[in-house]
Amino acid sequence: MSAISNQKSEIRNSESGQALVLVLLALLLGVVLVSGFLYFASTSQRATTSAINQTTQRYSSDAGIERGLWWLQYGGLTQTLTTIGSSVITQTQINNLTVTIIITRTTPSP
């Protein structure tokens, strides 16, 4: 019996630490995969936020242009801007952004 127990003892001694190495490699692989996923998620969130901000700014500037055109057509600005080079500057809130509208007369009236 002692020969068998010596063989088992030798097998255990030659395999000691292998499980630890395998667990550490699996842990390292998990950390690499999770950190890559978290980096991707963070970058995606920043890109989405930036795209939303740019879209909001674009829509706000377009709305400011439309408001300026409306003031020219229906708001009586054509009577206010009587000389070439005269201008009107106003600010308004659109989509929680302050939009500055500058209207300048560049041509003589027909």
Describe this protein's structure.
This protein is of the alpha+beta class. It has one domain. The protein contains three helices and two strands, in the order H-H-H-E-E. The chain has helices at 2-15, 18-74, 77-80, and strands at 87-94, 97-104. It has a two-stranded antiparallel ribbon with strand order 1-2.
Features:
single chain; 68% helix; 110 residues; two-stranded antiparallel sheet; alpha+beta; 3 helices
Rounded average pLDDT: 86
Instruction: Please state the structural category.
Output: alpha+beta
Helix fraction, binned, reads 55-70%
Q: How many discrete structural domains?
A: 1
Oligomer: single chain
Radius of gyration: 36 Å
Q: Report the principal-axis shape.
A: rod-shaped
The number of helical runs is 3
> How far do the termini sit from each other?
118 Å
Strand content: 5-15%
Low-confidence stretches: none
User: In sequence order, what are the helices and strands, one letter per element?
Assistant: HHHEE
Quantity of strands, as a count = 2
Largest sheet: 2 strands, antiparallel
Strand order of the largest sheet: 1-2
